[in-house]
Design goal:
With about 500 residues, this protein is α+β, with helices and mostly antiparallel strands. The chain folds into three domains: about 100 residues, 2-Layer Sandwich (Uridine Diphospho-n-acetylenolpyruvylglucosamine Reductase, domain 2), CATH 3.30.43; about 110 residues, Uridine Diphospho-n-acetylenolpyruvylglucosamine Reductase, domain 3; about 210 residues, Vanillyl-alcohol Oxidase, Chain A, domain 3. Helices cover about 25% and strands about 25% of the residues. The strands form five sheets. Strands 14, 15, 16, 17, 18, 19, 20 and 21 form an eight-stranded antiparallel sheet that branches. Strand 7 and strand 8 form a beta hairpin.
Length: about 500
């Protein structure tokens, strides 16, 4: 390796001699990708094509020991560090100019213990990796809705998906984590060991260390479920969304229905006459028996005049990847998001009006139904806050050409601004862009001060700062009620 020059945590430039860089690289099971390495451009590429940053080096770790050595090397040299899992974050938190990237994407192992049942997952795994192995045993836990999403970033931000109304957030099903802290130590965090760190990891993002292994509680689910899409004409959007709101307010936890407003892709079950036209899509998943699904779906199927209803028995893993073609890497992406405790008429009117003005064929407005098991825990149970939200709106501005940046970003910001007065508490850090640092305190609400104190305990110099950053502030770390340690295991469950 040549001399290694990088950006420091004080935003200056520093170099280490080639001999020291070589010794570090030789100590790894993985390898170091430098700017002059042929794989460099591929290695720095992430999901959001708007992110075009040039790190000083990308350390492709193959084990927890590699992560430990990388943190110690960076800490010794005061190097700026970013951490890459799946590389799917909207703000491009995985990559920073001039930084050393601790790249976990080669660490994709998933081990399932069906007797517990539990899964032990490495941080480079995607949701597709996770579902592939857990579904072998007809088991699952709540994760996101796009199979290429990284399990690490999703979990550390909170995590929700089709199973969350039934089984809670991803972090409600996290039982333990192995973490490399800012001082280069490898520790286990759970309800008994480092419980303050465990509390903070469950929603606090990448602020507290590099997780090298996650242990998840699993639940019986699949491999076949009742799920699919109900597609409605856009002319009915205003009335349909009001009916949707009223119907899902009575839905059992097993049923979830999310709304997508966008231009119809050329799906085989849609008539050609609606291809490229605005539609309202209800994406539906039921976490119960087929007979219960049939009963629970009737009120939702009774509203509106659908163009197509393709809800039926399907593969759970297949449904988890059904939206992948619409969210493939390589496009430019910008998101704006709000939580809502209720969908007021004024909010629905804004969404319908703005869906008539989609700035491009890949742009969409997404409304996810939350509630159920998510809201049965208090906000202090985990770092993730905003559990009273019944819906989350995420405006997906998505396009391919740089010349469309202004129009697409302005559209997303307009919807965000026009609905802000109706928004509820909290914000989902996984949906926040890098420009929203001022929302971090809002995202965590009353949990923020405790998070800042735990940050001061485990990372007093803010070594892990390429994230939705929580600034270390000394203070009491054990301020939440004793119930904060619960991870949602069934009563009487013994962790083995």
């Amino acid at each position: 390796m040549p001399e290694l020059t990088f950006r420091t945590t004080t935003d200056s430039e520093r170099s280490v001699a080639a001999s020291e860089a070589d010794a570090f690289a030789a100590s790894l099971r993985g390898h170091v990708v430098m700017p002059d390495t042929p794989q460099y451009d591929e290695a720095r590429r992430i999901w959001n094509a708007m992110i075009d940053r040039r790190p000083a080096a990308i350390i492709r770790c193959h084990s927890a020991a590699d992560v430990v050595r990388s943190v110690r090397f960076a800490r010794r040299n005061e190097a700026l560090v970013s951490v890459r899992g799946g590389g799917h974050n909207i703000g491009g938190l995985a990559i920073a100019d001039g930084a050393l990237v601790i790249d976990l994407s080669a660490m994709r192992g998933v081990r399932v213990d069906p007797a517990l049942p539990a899964a032990y997952v490495e941080p480079g795994a995607t949701l597709g990796d996770f579902d592939h192995d857990t579904q072998t045993f007809s088991l699952a836990t709540p994760v996101g809705i796009n199979s290429t999403t990284g399990i690490a970033g999703l979990t550390l931000g909170g995590g929700y998906g089709w199973l969350s109304r039934k089984h809670g957030l991803t972090v409600d099903n996290l039982r333990s984590a192995d973490v490399v802290t800012a001082d280069g130590a490898l520790v286990t965090a759970n309800e008994r060991e480092h419980p303050d760190l465990f509390w903070a990891l469950r929603g606090g993002g990448g602020n507290f260390g590099v997780v090298t292994s996650f242990e998840y509680q699993l639940h019986p689910h699949g491999p076949e479920v009742v799920a699919g899409l109900i597609v409605h004409p856009f002319d009915d959007a205003a009335a349909l969304l009001r009916q949707y709101r009223d119907v899902v307010a009575q839905s059992p936890d097993e049923l979830v229905a999310w709304v997508i407003m966008r231009k119809a892709p050329p799906l085989p079950f849609l008539p050609e006459s609606v291809h490229g036209k605005e539609v309202v899509v209800l994406a539906v998943h039921h976490a119960g028996s087929p007979s219960d699904a049939e009963r629970d779906l009737r009120p939702l199927r009774a509203i509106g005049r659908p163009i197509a209803d393709v809800v039926g028995p399907t593969s759970y893993a297949g449904f988890q990847s059904a939206f992948d073609p619409l969210l493939a890497p390589g496009a430019r992406n910008y998101w704006k998001s709000h939580n809502f405790s209720a969908l007021h008429d004024e909010v629905l009117d804004v969404l319908v009006e703005q869906a008539r003005q989609l700035p491009g064929p890949m742009c969409e407005i997404f409304v996810g139904q939350l509630g159920g098991a998510i809201g049965r825990k208090p906000d202090y149970a985990t770092a993730y806050a905003g559990r009273d939200a019944q819906f989350v709106m995420n405006v997906h501005a998505r396009w391919t050409e740089r010349r469309d940046d202004h129009a697409c970003i302005a559209w997303a910001r307009r919807i965000y601004a026009d609905t802000a007065r109706y928004a509820g508490t909290g914000a989902y850090v996984n949906f926040m862009t890098m420009e929203e640092a001022d929302r971090v305190r809002e995202a965590y609400g009353n949990n923020y001060n405790r998070l800042a104190a735990i940050k001061a305990k485990y990372d007093p110099t803010n070594f892990f700062r390429c994230n939705q950053n929580i600034v270390p502030e000394p203070g009491p770390v054990e301020t939440a009620p004793a119930a904060a340690g619960s991870v949602g295991a069934a009563p009487g469950t013994v962790r083995q």
